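Let us walk through a complete example step by step. Step one is to write down the protein sequence. Step two is to encode the small molecule, guanosine-5'-triphosphate, as a SMILES string so that its atoms and bonds are unambiguous. Step three, shown after the inputs, is the structure prediction itself.
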Amino acid sequence: MFESLSARLADISSRLRGKARITEADLDVALREIRLALLEADVNFKVVKDFVARVRERAVGVDLLHGLNPGQQIVKIVHDELVEMLGGQRHALSLGGSPSVVLLVGLQGSGKTTTAAKLAVHLRKSGHKPMLVAADVYRPAAVDQLVQLGDQVGVEVHTRPVGTPAIEIARSGLDEARQRGRDVMLLDTAGRLHIDVAMMDELVRIAGVVTPSETLLVVDAMTGQEAVSVAQAFAAKLPVTGLVLTKMDGDARGGAALSIRATTGLPVAFLGTGERVDGLEAFHPDRLAQRILGMGDILSFVERVQDNVDRAEAERAAERLMQNRFTLEDFRSQLNQIKKMGPIGQLVGMIPGAGDMAGAAQQAVDSGQMAKIEAIIDSMTPDERRRPEIIKASRRRRIALGSGTSTAEVNRLLKQFGEMQRLMKMVSGGKMPRLGGGIGALFGR
Ligand SMILES: Nc1nc2c(ncn2[C@@H]2O[C@H](COP(=O)(O)OP(=O)(O)OP(=O)(O)O)[C@@H](O)[C@H]2O)c(=O)[nH]1
Ligand SMILES: [Mg+2]
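Step three: the predicted structure of the complex.
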């Protein structure tokens, strides 16, 4: 997601941050590059125009401020305006009812059914008791699809015999959810075209019966700016409260995700990032802006990690990473967490500048490098892990013996860890090196 835009904006912002003085010509160049980068990411041209104008307006007179250098201030402005463009606040689902109804609507094949199952998982994790309701009566096998997904995630699915109208299913689903004490009902509906009057009326009637707290329009991000017109058409008929942009994993440009809020006024609530039921991300404008600007997305990373590991520990590690007090001890616990998390490609993509780290890390797991690194760290004393600089020749020999490795391997780990710390210092100093290379090297590349 956003790879090319992110690479370009990260580059522009690192150049700006390095400047102690910014002339009007510098600003012009930077804004022109930002404009092109956004257009190439398929962001709506009017949104781009407004964005650049706002950044320019705020950037003039930036010399007057103290503290940050002008380059840093401009990057901050770009960041703030990006957050604004993405909607400012995160759209948290409003789930006040008993039960609350989340109605999922959208074009055929946009990802409604998959998203319903993903949301069930997401809601259960945050303490809700969701129930799925299969109200797609038009596509054969649609009900089976949801039943299977429900089985897979362990959430019960309300169904009715073939021939029952969708509106009836919605109504009886609500009754059942109430009886069983479920607090959220996720209502999957049939895909439909926004120009199909009869089908759109059906949705209006369903909404009338179940009065949803959230009506989420599920759109395929890969359709780019077409997603905008679909969203406008649905919102004209139904009180859409938020958007779910699916298939972000297949959308390298990300234009729809970046401009749909600004063009439709509808908040993006979630991004679909894969076919599997764990491929759902809450949409955080601030974190996304940071990710796009190459500031990384430490928070999303931490959140993701939380599902598998101790929350406090993960937060501590992220904080230490930011403050570059990251020790070999932290590194070992990160390795443990990475092992627990399974497919790590997605995760490492969220770390700043970690482009080529995914492959390296995966390779390290596959090749048994990870086990070696762990064994070496395990053979150190706590003091050595915190202050690797005290590990001189005799300690190195002891550690090699203890871990069943060689002194050369111990040397390499220490050297590479030192290198990684140096790179992290540069990241927190705003110089944006290629962190991936550093960590990749640590994994033995
Ligand atoms: N890569 C990727 N595929 C997705 C994502 N969300 C859904 N899909 C895939 O898109 C296809 C359609 O998904 P469904 O959930 O069946 O879509 P739907 O909107 O319910 O479709 P209809 O009920 O036919 O209108 C399936 O193959 C899904 O696996 C996503 O975020 N990423
Ligand atoms: Mg479906």
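Step four is interpretation. The chain is about 55% helix and 10% strand.
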